[in-house]
Amino acid sequence: MATVIAAQQRRSDYERLAAPELAVIVPTYNERANLAELARRISAALDGVAFEVVIVDDDSPDGTAELARELARHDPRFRCLQRVGRRGLASACVEGMLATCAPYLAVIDADLQHDELLLPRMLERLQSGHADLVVASRYLDGSVVPGWSEDRRLLSRLGTALVQRLPRLRGLSDPLSGFFAISRPALEGTVRRLSAIGFKLLLDILLSAPVPLRVVELPYRFRSRRFGSSKLDARVAVEFLLLLADKALGGVVPARFLLFAAVGATGVLVHLAFLVTSLEVLGTSFVTAQTLATVAAMVFNFALDNELTWADRRLRGLAWLRGLASFVLVCGLGAIANVGVAAALYARDTAWPLAAAGGILVGAVWNYVVSGFYTWGERSGR
Ligand code: GDD
Ligand code: MN
Asked: How remote is the CA of residue 110 from the centroid of ligand 2, in Å?
């Protein structure tokens, strides 16, 4: 008996030291209350498997990363990858996958909604060599999704029905699942083509793979969230559409630029509204009205771009004010470039609408690239 126990002990020591066969990637944002229970459940579910857990935390204010490191101090199979100044479920998962040497990679939410007991079966399917990707589906016979509000259920169904029309995804019951496992070669072939925008990494992978992946779906019981709240909000819906646009455009024009341009177009409406109000209601001079309208449109555009276009690098507090200042500066220069190009085109006998459009395009590209760099990107050094 004692030797059996000793052998088991050795085996489990070995498993703890062995290179992982499966890496479980856990994206977290404010999941402190769920983490210890999740760790316990994953360890139990994967008893006998050489596994590793990479918790990818986007600097959650509730201290999730600190707790993740605490877990890692007790069990080296757990690791924390902390990202500062960035947000994004899909990009977090990708970075976690790239931070491990395991040949098989699973992604699971931290909030205990996904059934971790499926992990060994997902691994087996991949190891069999017959599948590149195993998806835990909420919508197969035998799957159950309890505790969802009507709105949430409808939204999920709608999104799923929409993408199921894409040829690549026909026959898949749940291409928007957040719970799946993939082999390293399949990831390797796809990772450089990913948009990594928003929540829907699985969809991104399915649409980006150079050749269609061999997919197996397994049913499971989707559970209610234990603690904390869902991070799904309007931004997630926008990012979902952005991801689809990015895939449709084949990466030629970044979808983010289109969103930036759309936000810019709404800025024109704000400008006109302020201009008219100032002239007609307040009775100011034209120059005052135009100045007021310009400032209002810039602040409006900055605020909206910060919430939507650059939501993954959203600025808050003092950084928001600093960002606004740099945005105004960048767009001021953009306006000069716009007028300069339009004037030059017009002087070369270009019809005025074309000359204007040329100026607007150059100004928009300048604003997008330079504000992306200074206002939301390089400014923070990341
Ligand atoms: N690192 C990081 N960064 N993690 C994030 C972020 C982020 O910006 N936003 C959310 N997460 C983490 C959460 O902490 C959680 O562990 C997981 O990602 C899912 O977030 P939820 O807010 O719980 O999303 P949900 O339950 O509404 O939707 C999830 O499940 C659906 C069904 O499987 C997502 O995975 C959906 O994509 C999926 O369709
Ligand atoms: Mn959830």
From this structure: 8
